[in-house]
Specification:
The chain is an alpha/beta fold. It has a single domain, classed as Alpha-Beta Barrel (TIM Barrel), CATH 3.20.20. The strands form two sheets. It has an eight-stranded parallel beta sheet with strand order 7-6-5-4-3-2-1-8. A two-stranded antiparallel sheet has the order 9-10. Strand 4, helix 4 and strand 5 form a beta-alpha-beta unit.
Length: about 220
């Protein structure tokens, strides 16, 4: 099994080039001002031009309005929109209609009920991404990129469905075990390949992708 890799939260040409050279299948750009990984549509457009044809381009949004979605679609021309907020199945369908591209719906996981919620999105999302739900005690938690993981056994024995992406607290050191436990065909990393919030570490990007490739 070849596991696909998404490096998310890229914001510089240097780190994007490193991710592409290492063989990333997906590259993600974050459009959320509170995130240390936030980029503008203009910044992302320049980066996306480097990646086009080499990896699938993902635009991560959080409860974005139609105006922002249209701007991203026009300027960045992503292959996929990643909806990382509280978007309902109806909103996911609307995002597809507004942008004309596929949609990844991110679901925050704390227990089995959160996995089961993926069924509600099966007809409207191209795939579901399972991320860790931040505890209420974590006051400065972001919608994603918090470096937190969840109980991977919740996804064992095919419980995640036939097509999902695994995220949440993945690192070069634990990603192989995460794939073994969950059977994930796709993995997503952001903070796990950073030297500090928002600053991607080229060596860790390479190590992460190498670790994933050894599972295939």
């Amino acid at each position: 099994m070849t596991v696909a890799v998404k490096i998310c939260g890229l914001s510089t040409a240097e780190t994007l080039a490193a991710a592409l050279a290492a063989g990333a299948d997906y590259v993600g750009f974050v459009f959320f001002p509170k995130s240390p990984r936030n980029v503008t549509p203009a910044q992302a457009a320049s980066l996306a031009a480097m990646a086009r044809g080499r990896a699938r381009i993902v635009a991560l949004t959080v409860d974005a309005d139609d105006a922002l979605l249209r701007e991203i679609a026009r300027e960045v021309k992503p292959d996929l929109i990643q909806a990382h907020g509280a978007e309902t199945p109806e909103r996911i369908a609307a995002i597809r209609a507004v942008t004309g591209v596929g949609v990844i719906k991110a679901l925050k996981v704390a227990g089995a009920a959160d996995i089961a919620a993926a069924r509600d999105y099966a007809a409207v999302a191209d795939l579901v991404l399972f991320d860790a739900k931040a505890p209420a005690s974590l006051k400065d938690a972001l919608p994603g990129g918090n470096g937190l993981s969840f109980d991977w056994s919740l996804l064992s024995d095919g419980k995640g469905g036939h097509r999902f992406m695994l995220s949440g607290g993945l690192t070069p050191e634990n990603v192989a075990e995460a794939i073994r436990v969950t059977g994930a065909g796709m993995v997503d990393v952001s903070s796990g390949v950073e030297s500090s919030p928002g600053n991607k570490d080229i060596a860790r990007i390479r190590k992460f992708i190498e670790a994933v490739r050894t599972t295939g």
